């Protein structure tokens, strides 16, 4: 990845149909697929599109993020948030969305989960979703309205 890109995570009712649609729309297939999950690394426009199969979700929007190149970029974002007086939380080597990630969540009004995530992918996590405990991509509650990412897993950084 040469530059940062916005992450848009959507809840979809049919992962196969949505994957076909976005493959056609952007002209690129998923970079990663798992049961009920697909993500696309789109070069133009620079976008990380993530799909979660949640047929009963009350909103199509799951969460928002910014994927950055490195852990140093995550730390720089956290420093920027601290300087601006924004409430935020860091997680290191977080297992989320079928990957190991360093990330910072910054509280934001009027967005899903009440925060944006700024993250970098450290490694693929092929065990995610196979009974391994993670802080993110938790099982959807029985009502089907839970997002993939349960939000910040640590206490806020002041």
In short:
With 158 residues, this protein is α+β, with helices and mostly antiparallel strands.
Q: H/E series, N to C?
A: EHEEEEHEEE
Number of strands: 8
How many structural domains can be distinguished in the coordinates?
A: 1
Q: Major beta sheet, specifics?
A: 8 strands, mixed
Class based on secondary structure composition and strand pairing: alpha+beta
Report the span from N to C terminus.
Answer: 31 Å
Instruction: Output the strand order for the largest sheet.
Output: 2-3-4-1-5-8-7-6
Which quaternary structure do these chains form?
A: single chain
Specify the CATH architecture.
Answer: Roll
CATH class: Alpha Beta
- Specify the helix fraction band: 10-25%
Assigned CATH superfamily: 2,3-Dihydroxybiphenyl 1,2-Dioxygenase, domain 1
For this structure, the CATH topology is 2,3-Dihydroxybiphenyl 1,2-Dioxygenase, domain 1
Number of separate helices: 2
Poorly predicted regions are: 129-135, 137-147, 149-158
Would you tell me the overall average pLDDT?
80
Q: Work out the radius of gyration.
A: 15 Å
Beta-strand proportion: 35-45%
Note the overall shape. Answer: globular
